[in-house]
Write a structure and sequence with these properties.
Layout: H1 2-25, E1 51-57, E2 60-65, E3 68-72, E4 82-84, E5 87-89, H2 101-104, E6 109-111, H3 122-128, E7 134-138, H4 142-145, E8 152-156, E9 161-163, E10 169-173, E11 192-197, E12 200-204, E13 223-227, H5 243-253, E14 257-261, H6 275-283, E15 298-301, E16 311-312
Parallel strand pairs: 3-6, 6-7, 7-8, 12-13, 13-14
Antiparallel strand pairs: 1-2, 1-15, 2-3, 4-5, 9-10, 10-11, 11-12, 15-16
Helix pairs in contact: 5-6
């Protein structure tokens, strides 16, 4: 009996210490008001031809490529982080998801860039993965996904690729980040992906610091999803690129359009929540190449050449 009480007290002490450290660390960070997404996509009306892309929030993008529905790093939860005794300790969402998870389904393919809790969120995966969903994830992380019972799990390392039965070709791309979910998970990988189907090519960078993406240009991507936030204070740049670096990486890929991700959803750093987009648009030599619509804006191109029209369908 006393052993159980001792263990419970020890866990409670850890919870209190973790909470105090978290509050001290984030005391000077922005505290934006909660707000709804700017637009609500209607994927139920998407056709079977062309490329659809809508930013749900953070690194979650719902895409459809010639009828195949893809979801990147699905996170729909109100708060993400360490869960102890039924409580989640971590950043709270200040912009609601542009869609409920049920509105994204059926999802054919889920792409997971790494196992950090703001990218691999179990409550969200539980709602979007069905027995018909294929999951492509980083090396050493498939065990986290098995509990959700997808049709198949493909674990890739950078430079490895897989061709799915639906016709999608997924190639893992090296990035500069880190992948441990907990300090002892040193074996977990991290990466971006090049997604190809027919004439379409999309690059999803996942989460990354400044990385040379010149090697991506051989895949001739029409669209690049690149993170732009969580870079302040300066040491954070070891894991997250600045908006200026994101633009340079976009230029290296020679993609035609940039959809910025990983900003203005969770407060993960010190910079103001609207600063990443302002800095990106200030540095962009061609602003029409940046898809800067609010959360939930859906961009559509029937053919690869049409992507230059920047057509939205909300």
């Amino acid at each position: 009996m006393w052993i159980i009480i001792g263990i419970a007290c020890f866990i409670l002490l850890i919870v209190c210490v973790f909470y105090i450290l978290y509050r001290r660390t984030t005391s000077t960070w922005p505290k934006p008001e909660r707000r709804p997404a700017g637009r609500r996509p209607q994927p139920e009306h998407w056709g079977a031809e062309g490329l659809y892309a809508t930013w749900i929030g953070h690194s979650t993008v719902l895409m459809q490529i010639d009828g195949i529905r893809i979801l990147t790093d699905p996170v729909f939860s109100r708060r993400v982080g360490v869960r102890i005794l039924g409580l989640t300790f971590g950043p709270k969402r200040h912009v609601d998801p542009a869609l409920e998870p049920s509105a994204c389904t059926p999802v054919d393919v889920v792409l997971l860039s790494h196992a950090h809790m703001d990218h691999l969120d179990h409550p969200s995966l539980r709602k979007v993965i069905s027995p018909k969903t294929v999951v492509v994830t980083a090396e050493g992380t498939s065990w986290l996904v098995r509990r959700h019972h997808p049709l198949r799990i493909h674990e890739l390392a950078p430079s490895e690729s897989v061709v799915l039965e639906c016709g999608l070709e997924i190639k893992a791309q090296a990035v500069k980040h880190w992948g441990s979910r907990y300090p002892w998970n040193q074996h977990m990988g991290y990466q971006g992906y090049v997604i190809r189907r027919h004439a379409w090519s999309v690059f999803f960078a996942g989460d990354t610091a400044r990385t040379d993406f010149t090697s991506v240009r051989k895949f001739e991507p029409q669209l690049a999803l690149i993170p732009i936030g969580a870079y302040a204070p300066y040491p954070f740049e070891n894991a997250h690129c600045t908006p200026e670096q994101a633009w340079d990486m976009f230029v290296e890929t020679q993609a035609q359009r940039l959809l910025p991700i990983h900003h203005d959803t969770f407060v993960l750093s010190q910079e103001p929540v609207d600063e990443p987009m302002r800095r990106l648009l200030a540095i962009a030599s061609s602003r029409e190449q940046v898809w800067d619509g609010p959360h939930g804006t859906t961009y559509y191109a029937r053919r690869p050449i049409d992507i230059q029209e920047n057509q939205t369908i909300n």
